Amino acid sequence: MTIAMTYAEFAVREARGVSPAYERLSLAVSRDDEVVALLGTLPPGKRQPTLLFGVVRFLGGPVDDPAAFHEFVVENWPAIEAESRTRATQTNEAGRCALLLPVLAALPQPLALLEVGASAGLCLYPDRYAYRYGDHTVGSGPPILDCVATGLTPPACLPDVVWRAGLDLNPLDVTDPADVAWLDALIWPEHAHRRARLRAAAAVAAADPPLLVRGDLVDDLPALAERAPAGATLVVFHTSVLYQVPPPRREAFVEVVRGLPGHWIANEAPDVLSYDALPQPPDESLHNVLALDRTPLAWTRGHGQSIAWFA
Ligand SMILES: C[S@@+](CC[C@H](N)C(=O)[O-])C[C@H]1O[C@@H](n2cnc3c(N)ncnc32)[C@H](O)[C@@H]1O
Question: N or C: which end of the chain has fewer CB within 10 A?
Fold first, then answer.
């Protein structure tokens, strides 16, 4: 797919209905030969809309007006190029805990959580957030994570987490203002509620920082898993990570995680981690599949905004 096509598709399939500003901007970039040519000087893995838009926001550039955006990108390309080469899309969305909670709460307690692709580790605190599934609430915030749940009896209580650890190629530090500013820049412009959620979740994590290890989810997982305490159920999980991992390494990861004791929760797109049979998704927007130990359980939306349990 060409760069122009990638931006046009992002506008329609990912931004439409979610971020009018990014839909507009992405369509404009798809028709902007000058910006497309600049993007073409970056390595293929550094050209995607979310990275470009995040870097421009991080540098204080405009993302609400395509003409001003074009001007900013052309004038500030050296800075944009440098940030794009060193930074990665590491959106850390605490809202995804609302998807994990029903599974975590049903496992034998207490839990030892190990998240691969943890970013800043905000999904390692499912026991410290509050949740609202329609009329049903559990836990006490902030943040309060809202999730539209269908076909599911929401959990009555929070899991008992006795150990939490994360593995990431580039762990971010919630106590470092520059890292939090980067996480903020990755949140889409209109999503003020997600920005507030980031701040609240970062405060929870900063008060009791998790063990975050720099490493690869294949090579370094067994050693970190060995550090989990005996007497707790080890749960290895990941949300929106494997799309960043090349297919042969995904397979290697599946081999490694299946060889570990405990349980494995995956929340990934179905074209990234496939299953033999899946029901129809609830609508045409992009959905992930929540699975426990390779058994698919539910369709989920990317930022944790809804979960549709399979019948
Ligand atoms: C899109 S972020 C998702 C973060 C978090 N799981 C969440 O849902 O909020 C993907 C994360 O996976 C990490 N990652 C990508 N490839 C990895 C690998 N091979 N090993 C470890 N972490 C990896 C990235 O650095 C990034 O922080």
Answer: C
